[in-house]
Amino acid sequence: MTDTALIPSALQLPAAPRALVCHPATPCVLPLQIQVTLAGAGNEAGAGLLLRYELRGDMGRLRLPEPASPGPADGLWQHTCFEAFVARSGEPAYREFNFSPSGRWAAYRFSAERLRDEPAEAAQPPVVPDLHLERGTDSLTLRAWLPHHALPDSTQGQPLEIGLTAVIETTDGQLSYWALCHPNERPDFHHRGGFQPSPDLPHFLPNSAPT
Hints:
The chain is mainly β. It has one domain (18-198): Immunoglobulin-like. The chain is built from 1 helix and 13 strands, in the order E-E-E-E-E-E-E-E-H-E-E-E-E-E. Strands 1, 2, 3, 4, 5, 6, 7, 8, 9, 10, 11, 12 and 13 form a 13-stranded mixed β-sheet that branches. It starts with 17 loop residues before the first strand and ends in a 13-residue tail after the last strand.
């Protein structure tokens, strides 16, 4: 985890909390509320996207991964994890980001729904988000800062479409799946029907490696 001072401030930008809802097929036994706040900044080098996940409720029965050395890891979604799916309006490609309370993360590219684009991942600089975790007696807050080169290119100024999700594990090992909305009868975070337009966020220029 990074120190909070390393995460750029976005307080001067519009940021409205968005509530996640639990999928009815995987009910959560805990009385929880999850909100996510988004903010963006400019289009110059160093700009990016700030995501703030805030969970409130019974922390005593919430199972969190053990702290680990920061770095990329697969399978984070098998335990408590916060996620973001980011696309451009009208484009089939999208990115997936996983943020674990352990301090680890994952970043994937897809050319279409669930079609992983590993060549594109290998051809680009690695994504290294800044993560900061705060835990209280009845709350958990994770902030993730993504640099703008981690986001999908915009060649014609298309706005972002974002799916905000979470996987919550309780102490008895049960998993519940949370999202802005659930278009399928079973949890499916990759379904584009679960993405929502975010026109208030900036239209970043086509990406290039940071200099």
